[in-house]
Description:
- The chain is mainly α.
- The chain folds into two domains: 27-178, no CATH class; 181-263.
- It has helices at residues 37-57, 63-79, 85-99, 106-120, 135-145, 160-173, 181-189, 203-211, 222-231, 238-251.
- α2 (63-79) runs parallel beside α4 and α5 (135-145) packs antiparallel against α6.
- InterPro entries: PSME4.
- It comes from Anopheles funestus (African malaria mosquito).
Amino acid sequence: MVSNRPEPSGTSVTRSSDSNRRRNCFANKFLPYADKLDDESQANLESIKNNLGKVVAMREMGPAVMMSIRNLVTYIKLYGMKFSKEDHVKFVQLLLEMLVIPKLDPDAINKISEAIFFLLRKREWLSTDDLQIEWRPLYDLFHLLVSRLSKKGELFNTTSSMEGNLQCAIQVCTPYFPPSATQEILDELLSKLQPLDNGSGCEVITILNIFLNYEQGYELWFDKLMAIWNGYHNPPWAGDFMTMYAVVGNKNLGHIDWEPHIPT
């Protein structure tokens, strides 16, 4: 799942120095027992790492691992990202490996996706030098469970919350896709594009909206998709295109010449 990185063993117990701790919850310093939070948070973090290590080593994907993941999310909500960058990367790697386990329970997918979102929701916390994520396993999972393009999705009892959390998890992973991912995603999806889809929207465009990395590689699709958009009047998928171009513009301020696309 994660290429050219250490194995996802994010369970080793190492006491982080203050200089290595990530973003803390700023409001905690106003608590009456703020001076005790360092010891309290460190004890909770070590417990989470130990418990995750045990359940993964025992291949326990039932309630035990779900409890550990829920405790990790609760820890982030209470203390912020109060762990080292190394622990941060290992948590993400471990959860990504767990997410793509075949035949995983939908509730487990829901909770793991939520945890991944909380770990990666702030882009500045990790750089692409720290973490790289392969897009294909995430695409295969999304295609199996959510996509209308796959009839197999009808065999799974998925909920809207699970689909939403999985989508959010994928979207926060996209900045960490390798540079080659954009062209690979376009090769996979553009051949399936059906602009005249009479449904609520063209699903290929929706999937592109979820999987494309807007920070790099937009040159590969910007003009091509803009031409498609200009070729159809008020299509049901126009909202997805609006979102795509709004996000790519926000992520690449000053790098895109919008003049040719502004109506005169």
